[in-house]
Amino acid sequence: MKLSYKWLQTYFKETLPSAEKLEEVITLGAFEIENIKEVGEDYILDIDVLPNRAHDCLSHRGIAKELAVLLETSTKPAKDGPLQTCKGRSFAGLVVEVEEQDLCRRYIGRRIEGVKVESSPDWLKERIETIGQKSINNIVDVTNYVMFDVGQPLHAFDADKVDGGIVIRYAKKGEKIITLSGDEVELDESMLVIADEKCPLAIAGVKGGKKAEVDESTTNIILESANFAPVNIRRTSRKLGIRTDSSKRFENEITPEMAELGMEEATALVVEVAGSGNTKVGNAIDIYPRKVNPYKVGVSLDEINNLLGVQLPKKEVGDIWSKFGFKVETVIPRQKVLDTVASVIESKYKRPSAMQYDAPHAFSCTSLISYLFVQAGIYMPSMAVDKYMFGNIVSREELKPGDVIFVNTGEGTDGKAPKIYHETIEWMPGTKVSEGVDHAGVYLGGGKVLHTSWTFGKAVIEELDSSKQFQNIVGYRSFIKDEKERYVVTIPSERLDLRIKEDLIEEIARVYGYSNIKPELLEKTEDVPVNKTFYYVNKIRSILVREGFSEVYTGTFVGGGSVEVENPIASDKGFLRSNLREKVVEAINNNLKYADLLEIDKVKVFEIGKVFNTNKENMSLCISVGISKLKKGDNPDKYIEDILEHISKELGIKISAEKGNPYAEIDFDKLIEELPKPTSYDDVLETYIGDVKYQKISPYPFIGRDIAVWVPEGVAEEDIKEVIRSEAGELLVRGPKLFDRFEKKNKETGEIEKVSYAFKMVFQSQERTLTDEEVNETMNKITKILNNKEGWEVR
């Protein structure tokens, strides 16, 4: 995002620090500055605005607000006045219809007649071109200027080129549009367009079309300031391969409230730079079907200080809120909930309802409760069954005014009343609630309960004992942790990044200064008990590692099992594993393929991890041994028995497992039940793994070769190896390793005539894939030199 220093200065009465100083301030307090470039008498700051702040900071206004906080100053008072709107969807020849209100969340259109389209005045042209934009004409430049000034994309249509009214709809199959850049684009039915009665005029939020382009012949315009759903804009932009400054802003989402500011600023500028004595400005048509309520977030002074590790006084926190211009109310939560009750009595019942849009005029039973608690700065899930699981359990005797009562009315089977839920939906989804929940109310004390339901059609206060809908109470919950003061912060509409208390605390930390937060060692209040599971996991790990076993971590997600994953990451990972052995044995077999390369004849591994079965999960221990080539006396089962016996002696208990398998899997949770509770960790965390040497692993495949040679009796094994190494060269990475020795004796005398030694070799390159021809050539050299030795013969 390129910003003009001189442009930023227009937001302040006081002279800003130098561009270099601003770079330091913004970098430390908000965003990284990619570079600063001097352009004429101005400086351009290239700011890397992160996605979480693209809602409000992809504009000079947004960055000016940030600077006001960081420099402890203020911006000039806004000149915004109320938007002059008309009633209905038509005015002065302009008719607007929004067919897709979920995708076009607000549309403001205004007809302005008698404009003169020409080159922009020098000041406007300079502003636009300084930040790297091309000046087109005064009308188009105004729309671009406003976007870079306040962050609201706009568009202007030549009103006389529009056939009929404006309609915001999905594109039709096969429909095409020629964009302002002259490219013909084919649209599909998932794309939102701004159209007239005949064809699309613009790809909504992405790019305008040629048909209603504003040019020097234009005298009447339709000015558009709208708000579009980000997901649709992103999909359309990617499908078409068109990304613009407009689409970038809509993709990251901006508040619908910004549309009004953009329209009023653009209207004033059009009149200023393109107006004449004949210019007529029509009232705006403002289609805003679901106006968003201000978002509120609660946080306490203790929560702020505990998370930051400091002790900020109440006054300093209040001063920081003031710098941001946040509206802040200090409340006692329980009292605030009860005080708000009077304002919702008689409000309409509506299901489904969204507190974000419908409050305080209409509620469902759950949105009513959420609304009351939001005013006290307390969050809870939206659905009744989720609230039931989320809250703190209290008894009837412990019930206080401001607590919530949950019931199963038994009415949810007739299709009129809310459904009775027997498991959670959003909070810890899938948790069983056998008693069922479909309704809730707020206890007011004195045996009275506030609730709203389809039966009454509005919010009412009833006697709890005589209320028909509270005959089957399933539980009581409290959502108020303490009676301490709590800040309730009303979030500015453009700050879509502030949604939870941690977001607010981060804002405080930015202004307070991260460098002012000094690390302090927490005071020890009491001895932390030794975690029994953690202790014995590490103890058994140490035992196995000392015995030459390697620990493996295999995947939790597998292709089959009893616990299915709702949204699997891959088709073969749709279940949680029910055992460790399958993947451990698979790991054994995979590693045995590299036995020659690793110069090992046995692979010994173990894993300790969670396994999942219906309604149960537990820790499991799996030990397995694999042997590359079984020799006389080799028995994987015996290795398993021996290691279990060794662990048993170390722990002082008897551990057994099913025999006849090259693995043993043991329920770890049951195992440690028999073991004493440890009082300290001793040295179990210090797992000795020997002297480790690291070697780069080649990404290229290896090739194995065997060779056997007769030598006279008395020739040492090492002498033969040395001859082989001398000819094998650097491609020999393992071996020669002896795997067989055979003595040939004289049948009559019994004396040893000669001895056969068989060696295994592994060839590999760090730079390329070896060919059989290369290795064969090396083997031929080795064979030749061995055969040239007196009395030696390759078999």
Name a few traits of the molecule.
795 residues, alpha+beta, Phenylalanyl-tRNA Synthetase, Chain B, domain 1, Phenylalanyl-tRNA Synthetase, Chain B, domain 3, endopeptidase fold (from Nostoc punctiforme), 5 domains, six-stranded mixed sheet, six-stranded antiparallel sheet, 23 helices, 40 strands, 27% strand, extended
How would you sum up this structure, described in words?
- It contains 23 helices and 40 strands.
- Helix content is 29%, strand content 27%.
- The model has no long low-confidence stretch (mean pLDDT 91).
- The two termini are 75 Å apart.
- The longest helix has 17 residues, at 258-274.
- It is extended, with a radius of gyration of 38 Å.
- It folds into five domains: 2-70, Phenylalanyl-tRNA Synthetase, Chain B, domain 1 (2-Layer Sandwich), CATH 3.30.56; 90-287, 3-Layer(bba) Sandwich (Phenylalanyl-tRNA Synthetase, Chain B, domain 3), CATH 3.50.40.10; 333-478, endopeptidase domain like (from Nostoc punctiforme) (endopeptidase fold (from Nostoc punctiforme)); 532-673, BirA Bifunctional Protein, domain 2 (2-Layer Sandwich); 703-794, Alpha-Beta Plaits (2-Layer Sandwich), CATH 3.30.70.
- A six-stranded mixed β-sheet has the order 4-5-8-11-12-13. It has a six-stranded antiparallel β-sheet with strand order 21-28-22-25-26-27, with helices on one face. Strands 6, 7, 14, 15 and 16 form a five-stranded antiparallel β-sheet that branches.
- β23 and β24 form a beta hairpin.
- With 795 residues, the chain is of the alpha+beta class.
